[in-house]
C-alpha cells in the first residue's frame, strides 16, 4: 500500500517538528508489480550469456550438494555402513562426502563472487543510463524538481536496487530450489513423517510474514526519520552563516536534538520488533523438533522407518527454516525495489520537451541575426509569460532587455538558446526556425553568462576552459587577459592552477563575473546572452567589468538583461518589456525623447541614486 504522510501527520508523528517539516519524506511501500519487475530484469540481459548462467550453475551445484548430503548420511552412512558395520563403505562415504563439501565450497565462493560482480555491473549500467538521460532533459523538467530530489534518485534509489541484483534474485532461485528439494526428499523418505513435520509450515509462514511486515514498517519509519535528520543537517550546514549571524545556534541545536531523539526512538522501536524474530525462528525449530522426536520415535519403534531416515529428517529440519526466512526477506527487498524502481522509471520515461528533429540541420557560419515572429510562450497553462512578441536583433548588435522583474526578459533569452520552444510563433536565427536546427550547433554558437556564475570544482584554468575544452593554456590565459581577469588570477596562491571549490566560494562576486567573461570569450560565440549582475560591485571592479564587457561584445550579437544604466545607454537597441509585452524600443536617446516607460525607469534609477 502506497503511503505518504501529510505535514500534519508528520508533525503529530514527530513531536519535535514544530518549525520545519520535509515534504520529501515518504514511506517506501509499493505493491508488487510484475511489469515493473520485468523492466528491471531487462538490465540483466547483457549478462544473460555470461555472469548470469555462471552464477546460476554455481548456485545449483552448492544447493544440490547441501540437499543430498543428509540423505547420504541417513540412508548410507547410518543405515548401511554403520548398520552393517561395513568399514570400507564407511571410508568411501566419508571421502565422498568430503569431496562433495569441497565442491560446494568452491561453487559457493564463485557464486558469491559472480553475483556481486553482476550486481555491481547492473547498478553501474542503471546509474549511467539514468544520469545520461537526466542530463538530456529539458529545463522544464528541472523547473519542477529540486536538485536534492534528483540526487536522491540517482544515488539512493539506485543503491537500494543493488541488494536485489547482487543477492536477491539468485538467492530467490536458490531458496526455491532448496525448499522444493527438501519437501520432495522428505516425502520420498517418509510421507507420514513429512506430513507431520510440514504441517507447521503454513502456520509458521503466516506468522513470520505478519511479524516481518511489522518489522519492515518500523524500519521504514527509521528511514523516514533518517531522511529528516539528513535534510535538517543539510539545511543547517548550508545556512550556517545566516544561523550564526542571527544567533540562532541554540534554537537550531535544540531542533537538531529533537530530530535526533526522534530518530533514536524510531530505531529503538524497530530494534525491539526485530529482536522478536530470532527467538521466533528458534521456537518454530523447537516445535518441529518435538514433532519429529515424538512421531519419528513412534515410527521407528513400530518399524515404519529406519533410524537413518530419522537422522536425515533432523538435518532437513535444521535446514528448512533458512530459505523460508530468507524468502520473507527477499519479499521485503522486492517491495523496497518496487518503490525505488518506480521512481527511477518515472525519470527514465520523462522525455525532453525540446526535441531535435531527425533531419535537423546544423548551423554553418552563424551570423547571429535573431528574429522573433509573433512568439507566444507559457511555462504553465494558466500564465502567459510572453504575448505575441515580434522583434529583431541584427548581426553584431547589442540589445538591452529592460523591464520590471517578471516582465519576461530571461524568458526571451531562454527561447534564443532553445531551452524551451515557443507555444506559438517562431524564433529564427539567420532565417532558420530553431526547431529545424541541431541543438548542439545552436548552443555552441551561444554563450550564456548568468548573474550567478557557476564555478565547477577544479582549477581556474579548467573553469575558463569549460567554454572550449580543446583550448590551449595560452589561449585560456589570453582570454583572461583580454577581460582583465589575469591580474587577480595571478595573485591567487597557485595562479591559474588554484583549486576553486564548487560554486567558487574563495572568489568575490566581481572576480567570478570576470571569470565567466573569460569563459565566454574563449568559447568565441556568435551570440552572447548576458544576465547582468544586480549585486553592487565597487566602482573599480565596475569599471573593469565594463571594459571587459566591451571586449566581449565586439563583433557578436549580444542580448543583455541589463540593470546598469551605463550598459543600457551603450546598447544599439533597448527593448522595454512589461508583463510579457514590448512596450517600446529604440536607442537611449530616442526613448528618452519619447518620455515613456523607459524615461520613467531611468528617472527612478537616478532618483534612487540621488537618495543614496
Ligand atoms: N521556470 C518557470 N516556471 C514557471 N514560470 C516561470 C518560470 N520562469 C519564469 N516564470 C514566470 O514567467 C514570467 C517571466 O519571467 P522571467 O524570468 O522571464 O522574468 P524576468 O523579466 O527575467 O525577471 P527578473 O528580472 O526577475 O529575472 C514570470 O511571471 C515568472 O514568474
Automatic annotation (TrEMBL):
The keyword Membrane applies. GO terms for molecular function: ABC-type oligopeptide transporter activity; ATP binding; ATP hydrolysis activity. It comes from the Bacteria. SUPFAM superfamilies: ABC transporter transmembrane region (SSF90123), P-loop containing nucleoside triphosphate hydrolases (SSF52540). Keywords: ATP-binding, Membrane, Nucleotide-binding, Transmembrane, Transmembrane helix, Transport. GO terms for cellular component: plasma membrane. Residues 54-334 form the ABC transmembrane type-1 domain. Residues 370-604 form the ABC transporter domain. Coiled coil: none annotated. It is a multi-pass membrane protein. CDD domains: ABC_6TM_YknV_like, ABCC_Glucan_exporter_like. The chain crosses the membrane at residues 54-77, 89-107, 169-187, 193-211, 301-321. The keyword ATP-binding applies. Pfam families: ABC_membrane (PF00664), ABC_tran (PF00005). This is ATP-binding cassette domain-containing protein.
Amino acid at each position: 500500500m502506497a503511503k505518504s504522510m501529510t505535514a500534519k501527520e508528520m508533525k503529530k508523528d514527530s513531536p519535535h517538528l514544530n518549525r520545519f517539516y520535509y515534504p520529501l519524506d515518504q514511506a517506501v511501500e509499493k505493491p508488487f508489480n510484475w511489469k515493473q519487475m520485468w523492466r528491471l530484469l531487462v538490465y540483466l540481459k547483457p549478462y544473460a550469456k555470461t555472469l548470469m548462467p555462471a552464477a546460476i550453475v554455481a548456485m545449483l551445484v552448492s544447493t544440490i550438494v547441501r540437499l543430498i548430503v543428509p540423505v547420504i548420511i541417513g540412508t548410507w552412512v547410518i543405515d548401511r555402513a554403520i548398520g552393517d558395520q561395513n568399514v570400507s563403505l564407511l571410508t568411501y562415504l566419508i571421502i565422498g562426502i568430503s569431496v562433495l563439501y569441497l565442491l560446494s565450497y568452491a561453487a559457493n565462493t564463485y557464486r558469491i563472487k559472480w553475483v556481486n560482480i553482476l550486481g555491481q555491473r547492473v547498478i553501474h549500467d542503471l546509474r549511467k543510463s539514468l544520469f545520461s538521460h537526466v542530463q538530456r532533459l529539458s529545463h522544464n523538467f528541472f523547473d519542477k524538481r529540486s536538485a536534492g530530489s534528483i540526487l536522491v534518485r540517482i544515488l539512493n534509489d539506485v543503491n537500494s536496487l543493488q541488494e536485489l541484483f547482487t543477492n536477491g534474485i539468485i538467492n530467490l532461485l536458490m531458496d526455491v530450489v532448496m525448499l522444493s528439494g527438501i519437501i520432495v526428499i522428505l516425502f520420498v523418505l517418509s510421507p507420514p513423517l513429512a506430513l507431520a513435520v510440514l504441517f507447521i509450515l503454513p502456520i509458521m509462514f503466516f506468522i513470520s510474514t505478519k511479524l516481518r511486515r511489522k518489522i519492515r514498517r518500523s524500519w521504514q519509519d527509521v528511514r523516514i526519520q533518517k531522511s529528516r535528520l539528513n535534510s535538517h543537517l543539510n539545511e543547517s550546514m548550508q545556512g550556517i552563516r545566516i544561523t550564526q549571524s542571527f544567533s540562532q545556534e541554540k534554537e537550531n541545536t535544540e531542533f537538531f536534538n529533537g530530530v535526533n531523539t526522534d530518530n533514536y526512538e524510531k530505531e529503538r522501536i524497530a530494534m525491539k520488533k526485530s529482536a522478536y524474530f530470532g527467538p521466533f525462528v528458534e521456537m518454530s525449530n523447537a516445535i518441529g523438533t518435538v514433532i519429529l522426536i515424538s512421531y519419528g520415535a513412534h515410527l521407528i519403534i513400530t518399524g515404519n522407518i529406519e533410524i537413518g531416515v530419522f537422522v536425515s529428517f533432523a538435518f532437513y529440519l535444521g535446514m528448512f527454516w533458512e530459505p523460508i526466512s530468507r524468502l520473507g526477506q527477499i519479499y521485503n527487498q522486492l517491495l523496497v525495489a518496487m518503490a525505488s524502481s518506480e521512481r527511477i522509471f518515472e525519470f527514465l520515461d520523462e522525455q525532453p520537451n525540446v526535441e531535435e528533429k531527425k533531419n535537423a540541420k546544423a548551423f554553418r557560419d552563424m551570423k547571429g541575426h535573431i528574429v522573433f515572429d509573433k512568439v507566444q510562450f507559457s511555462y504553465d497553462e494558466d500564465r502567459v509569460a510572453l504575448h505575441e512578441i515580434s522583434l529583431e536583433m541584427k548581426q553584431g548588435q547589442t540589445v538591452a532587455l529592460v523591464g520590471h522583474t517578471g516582465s519576461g526578459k530571461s524568458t526571451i533569452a531562454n527561447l534564443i538558446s532553445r531551452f524551451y520552444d515557443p507555444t506559438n510563433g517562431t524564433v529564427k536565427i539567420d532565417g532558420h526556425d530553431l526547431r529545424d536546427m541541431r541543438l548542439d550547433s545552436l548552443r555552441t554558437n551561444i554563450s550564456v553568462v548568468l548573474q550567478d556564475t557557476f564555478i565547477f570544482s577544479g582549477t581556474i584554468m579548467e573553469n575558463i576552459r569549460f567554454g572550449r575544452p580543446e583550448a590551449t593554456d595560452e589561449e585560456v590565459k589570453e582570454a583572461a587577459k583580454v577581460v582583465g581577469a589575469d591580474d587577480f588570477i595571478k595573485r591567487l596562491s597557485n595562479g591559474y592552477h588554484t583549486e576553486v571549490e564548487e560554486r567558487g566560494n574563495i572568489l568575490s562576486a566581481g572576480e567570478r563575473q570576470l571569470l565567466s567573461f573569460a569563459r565566454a570569450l574563449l568559447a568565441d560565440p556568435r551570440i552572447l546572452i548576458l544576465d547582468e549582475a544586480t549585486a553592487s560591485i565597487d566602482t573599480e571592479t565596475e569599471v573593469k567589468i565594463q571594459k571587459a564587457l566591451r571586449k566581449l561584445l565586439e563583433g557578436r550579437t549580444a542580448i543583455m538583461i541589463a540593470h546598469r544604466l551605463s550598459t543600457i545607454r551603450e546598447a544599439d537597441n533597448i527593448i522595454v518589456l512589461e508583463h510579457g509585452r514590448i512596450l517600446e524600443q529604440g536607442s537611449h536617446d530616442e526613448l528618452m525623447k519619447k518620455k515613456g516607460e523607459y524615461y520613467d525607469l531611468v528617472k527612478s534609477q537616478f532618483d534612487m541614486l540621488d537618495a543614496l
